Amino acid sequence: MFIVVGIRTILPGLAEITALGFAGLGGWRLWQGWRVCRYQGHLRRLPRYVLKADKVPVSWHKLFLGRGFRWNQRHTQRLVESRHPQAQRYLRPGKLYQAARRMELRLENSPLLSWLPRLAQQDSRWNPLRPLPAVGGAAALHGVGTEEETDIWMDIGERVGHKLVLGTTRVGKTRLLEIRVTQDIRCGDVVICFDPKGDVDLLRRMHAEARRAGRLDQFHIFHLGFPDISERYNPVGDFARITEVASRIATQLPSQGSSAAFREFAWRFTNVVARALVGLGRRPDYHTIARYVTTIEPLLTDYFHLWLDQEAPEDWKQAVQRIEGNLNEKTLPMALRGRDFHAIALTRYAKEHNLFDPVADGLRSAFEYDKTYFDKLTASLLPLLEKLTSGRIGALLSPDYIDGADRRRSRRGRGQFHVCRSDLDRRPALQARRYPGATQARWPHQRQEDHSCRRIQ
């Protein structure tokens, strides 16, 4: 009797404990199933990631890159398995999704039911049939590790190395650049952005961030397609070695086959002109070089006057005048006929008095070339310089630094500079995989109307 009463007393408690154990096990299995369903869903559509522009984290010691995870062998295995034929149903939209897209096409122009397509296209988490975002790439590539996502930061000290960002069209490479540019502008750093394709969203982002950081007066843009608003820039005005001027111009010329000899001559002649300009205290630019390539006498005269004032006897001017007065067009060599007599007299005076200067000697040798032969040698250089100095582009690339009325000038100091080269691609003159241990990251997608960054998959 005592045993029966004990069993009756114990059984209700044991039943409750057992029920709680089974409920916990069921909850655990439910959570595991939810994770599997979420993982399968992320293979088709990444979770929404929204980051407003004013919420972009800024640090003096770290650089925020976005959210991501470290790629390893497990993610490689998952990606391979997701591409099996049996797993394609997890990557392709379902039948209801496809039916919704077909319905949009049929009812798009319906006068009575046109509201249905608009309803099906609503980008809301409560709309299970909303269209996939207009973002390139494969969601499965990132979906295999979304449960491990965390904020990705990089030490500022690591930025001294080069970074290579790979991705197909419309996956967010430019948005990543915007995230980095935003942080650099807010930290007060100098930011120079070269944009080969002319992305207007990137330009707007830099302008908006400069204004938000109170540095709009330091924002500059260089764009050959819009010379009226572009800053001016002299590509050959600043250099560490004088030979860089000739190299920057000559490298734009063809160098294959017999063109190599003409390119080398163009380099030498441009170098002679650049050295003479610097010797005269003038800043080289495309307009000046193009002028003296076609007519070198004025440059030779100016440089010889400066040089002879420093090296020749005081009466050199009278001696040059005597030589000039004795010149006869008929007795001159064929290469010098039609040339300026004063320039000829200067070169002869230097020869007679054994005066030597490397720049003056270079000018003299170029001056004494036969005109027909000289024109053939510069046949490839002149078209290039003409393209660089024609129209309003010429004033942009060869700025007049003493023109105070022109506010388009490149300033020095701390600021942001956006250089767009989209227009250069049409100008002949300037035709000039995942690894284990790597980090897989995604970054917000940007929407300009609210200056926010957004990535939607």
Radius of gyration: 36 Å
* Total beta strand runs: 9
Low-confidence stretches: 422-439, 445-457
What portion of residues is helical? 40-55%
Strand content range: 5-15%
What is the rounded distance between the termini? 69 Å
Q: What's the arrangement of strands in the largest beta sheet?
A: 1-9-8
Mean pLDDT: 83
Q: Which class do the helix and strand fractions yield?
A: mainly alpha
Secondary-structure element sequence? HEEHHHHEHEHEHHHHHHHHHHEEEE
Q: Which assembly state applies to the chains in this document? A: single chain
Shape, principal axes of CA atoms: elongated
With helices defined by DSSP (H or I, 4 residues minimum), what is the helix count? 17
Biggest beta sheet summary:
3 strands, antiparallel
Task: Give a structural overview.
By secondary structure, the chain is mainly alpha-helical. Among the domains are: 2-42; 243-397, no CATH class. The protein is built from 17 helices and nine strands. It has helices at residues 2-42, 73-82, 95-107, 115-120, 140-143, 173-186, 200-212, 243-250, 259-279, 286-294, 297-311, 316-325, 341-352, 358-367, 371-377, 381-389, 391-397, and strands spanning 49-52, 62-70, 150-155, 191-195, 219-223, 416-420, 439-442, 446-447, 452-455. The strands form three sheets. A three-stranded antiparallel beta sheet has the order 1-9-8, with no helix packed on it. The longest helix is centred in the N-terminal third of the chain and has 41 residues, at 2-42. It is elongated, with a radius of gyration of 36 Å. The two termini are 69 Å apart. The model is unreliable at 422-439 and 445-457 (pLDDT under 50).
